[in-house]
Amino acid sequence: MTRDNSSTSKTANTLSFIADRFPLEKMNLEHMLAHKEVPVHKMSWGYYTGGMTMFFFMIQIITGLFLLFYYQPTVSDANLSVEYITKYVSVGGLIRNMHAWSASGMILFAVVHLITAFAMKSFEKPRELTWIMGVLLLIITFTFGFTGYLLPWNQIAVNATKVGLQSVEDIGQYLPGMLHEVPRILRETFQGEASVGQSTLGRFYALHVVLLPLALAGLLGIHLLQVQVHGMSQGVDEKPKKQERFFPVFLFKDLTLWGFLFFILFTLSLCIPFESFLPFPLLAPYDAMGATPPGIKPEWYFFFVYYPLELLPFWVILLASGLIGAVLILTPWIFKGSSRKTLTFIATAVSLYLLIMTLFGEQIYHLLKH
Amino acid sequence: MPALDNFFLIALPYLAVVICLVGSYYRIKTRPMTYSALSSQFLESKGLMWGSLPWHIGIITIIAAHFIAFLVPGLWQALLSNQTVLLFVEAAGLGLSLLCLFGLAALLLRRFTSEKVQSVTSQMDLVVLLVLLLQVALGAHIAVSLSWGALWSVGTTVPYLWSLLSFTPDLSMVQDLPLAVKAHIVLAWVLILLVPFSRLIHMFAVPLEYIGRPWQNVVWVSDRRKEAAPQAFVEGEARRYFVKGGLAAVFGLSLLSVGVFDKIFRFFFGPRLTAHQETELMTTRLSRLEATSSQRKLELERQENDYILVGSLAELNSERGKYFIDYTMMPALAFKTAEGLPLLISAKCTHLGCTVGADAVDGKILCPCHISYFSIDTGMPNADSPAKTPLPHLGWVLMDTRGNQLVSYSGKGAVKGTLSEAQRASARVYIAKAHQIG
């Protein structure tokens, strides 16, 4: 056999891999809408988590476009323009509050979606790409949170961003040779100047309102196309006895759920300002000359990595996150042979960790530190 | 024409109501089979759906609104005193009357064109249809040309109706109303009069129990139809979902339209501030711009000058540092040592870059972000601090008022030069570009 032969078979393999993931004969409305069925079993609720994440994303787009009318991305005006929206613009406070609450909702449900999809083994062939797109979507969602946090340009925003960017740079000291400088260059690229300032704000703004939404929409398109083409994964070990039609039965249940979510979101945003969880000095406009007020911390959805970062040596966290990232991307191949029981066990352990760190991270930190 | 008014607005109403009640009772008792809508749905159903549904949805809502205004005028008026609600009610009323007109037109067309339906159509059916058409058209006309009827009717037609009900007829509130309104009232009495003589009588036979009873599904038992039964069942379920969801959406949207749309419109319209608010806002905006511009000036100053003034030596002390910005535009603190010399230390925490606090307690300053204490003498952090590397000391130069260098320190090594007591009072502390680069 010659090398030619093996390379042609490799090409053929790649082609058939792609053909299996994007079967053209299934890409029609008939197959993706009319004939699609959703299994009914005790884990069926897992099928709704993705839709809920998307619902919050749509809210983000709409409220974000509203905020775009008044927000001004300059260090002198950013904070004042946000205050102007909250104080003077009709329903401005509500819209901004919805944007904040819905951001949290989107991240919460994205994580729940990931965990349930993992437990239901929804990454099995031919759904590997769906899974990887999902992981990328989650990373983009977190980046949304990180970039959006800076935009109000208050004390906590700028200082938390400083901490975040500095953590990126600190990775460098653990990387060998050529890679040593990469995190510093990355940080300088995102920061744009010596300290977090106008250039940083401009860059974060561009990322938050243009680049990330485009990237997310594109990836989401592929993600959804894959879901509709391959149908819902089975989700349980035994073949489910009952199926329900995706259109209109499941879709209407989905919409009903979104209706409830909207009601909850609306009420929450109307009654509880998202900022009410922070003391005022942290919300004061950023002062480049003054001291940093105490209590700087990231949003709650970063607690799971933030508090361990405070407690453990940096390299441990770095190693762990590197490992977790790799495992997440390679999940479809690593857990190919695992039973759903094992997966559910892992998923439960991870959820427990996330819950405890998010809810009690601060207490654990104080307990161990003092 | 008081005589005509008296006849149409007092005699006719009593006559109509009496005939309606007595006639309907008589017809229901003696000819119960005709006590219905005499529906022709089996003869023709498509046209009926396009006519009957819009007509009944529209007219029932409109009549209900008329009744509420008549029964609880106080509450009605209180509700409508909110401009948004009034706008909504007026717009909804007009919209519904157009819906009714559409439905009536469809019904009329059906009566005129469908052969099957024509065979069961009586003269009275056509009369009723035409009177209804005229009545609704009049209502729509009033809604457009004499707007806010929902509100002015409370002071005109409502007292008139109550006067009739209490057998003390009083026309003073209605006799000067425009002809269209009077015609609308008269036609209403005519329609009531027609009830016992037409299919209008079906309004007494509304199957209200349908709302509460559990739904029923027709399942065929013959073999031929059996297979299709489960499918019909599923489709029925889906349709019910659709109807429920649709109703919820319509209800939600109408709630939204009352509470939200005008606010959203005003969101884009922009706030209209008072002069005071405007001034306040402008002042804040200007002060923020000035802060930014002073920051930029600092940057420029550091690019152009070899020495930057930190402050006079006399104002420094060992308890509370003075913030200044060093050559890299990072915050730093200036203290005074026990020997009376300046002590300049970076205020950028070596952990994650927060700005360290200015108060030195026992010779230590605190980074509030993650609780790192730094000794100002050595720069070293406490052993249990997250920060591991010391805050660097900065070099400085002491000059007298004429700009002569007295003492200098490069950040490392020894202090060069000495300071006399006389010079101490007027000495000023500078940072030097040379030290920063070195």
Description:
The complex is a heterodimer of chains A (about 375) and B (about 450). By secondary structure, chain A is mainly α. Chain A has one domain: Cytochrome Bc1 Complex, Chain C (Up-down Bundle). Chain A has helices at about 5-20, 30-35, 45-70, 80-85, 90-120, 130-150, 155-170, 180-190, 200-230, 245-270, 280-285, 305-310, 315-335, 340-370; strands at about 35-40, 240-245. A two-stranded antiparallel sheet of chain A has the order 1-2. Chain A is globular, with a radius of gyration of 23 Å. Chain B has about 450 residues and is of the alpha+beta class. Chain B has two domains: about 1-205 and about 240-260, Transmembrane di-heme cytochromes, Chain C (Fumarate Reductase Cytochrome B subunit, Up-down Bundle), CATH 1.20.950; about 295-435, Rieske Iron-sulfur Protein (3-layer Sandwich), CATH 2.102.10.10. In chain B, α2 packs across α3, α4 packs antiparallel against α6 and α6 runs antiparallel to α9. The radius of gyration of chain B is 44 Å and the shape is elongated. The interface between A and B is large, with 44 and 49 residues.
Strand content of chain A: under 5%
CATH class of the largest domain in chain B: Mainly Alpha
Q: Which strand order do you get reading across the main beta sheet of chain B?
A: 1-10-8-9
Q: State the low-pLDDT regions of chain B, or none.
A: none
Helix percentage of chain B: 55-70%
Number of strands of chain B: 10
Count of β-strands of chain A: 2
Say which CATH homologous superfamily of chain A is assigned: Cytochrome Bc1 Complex, Chain C
Brief overview:
The complex is a heterodimer of chains A (370) and B (438). Chain A is mainly alpha-helical and 370 residues long.
List the helices and strands and how they pair.
The complex is a heterodimer of chains A (370) and B (438).
Chain A: H1 3-21, H2 29-34, E1 37-40, H3 46-68, H4 78-87, H5 92-119, H6 128-150, H7 155-170, H8 182-191, H9 198-230, E2 242-245, H10 246-271, H11 280-283, H12 303-311, H13 314-334, H14 340-369
Antiparallel strand pairs in A: 1-2
Chain B: H1 2-30, H2 46-71, H3 73-80, H4 83-113, H5 115-119, H6 123-145, H7 149-152, H8 157-165, H9 179-194, H10 209-212, H11 223-226, H12 228-269, H13 275-304, E1 307-312, E2 322-325, E3 331-336, E4 342-346, E5 364-367, E6 372-375, E7 393-394, E8 396-399, E9 405-409, H14 421-426, E10 428-432, H15 433-437
Helix pairs in contact in B: 1-9, 2-3, 2-4, 4-6, 6-9
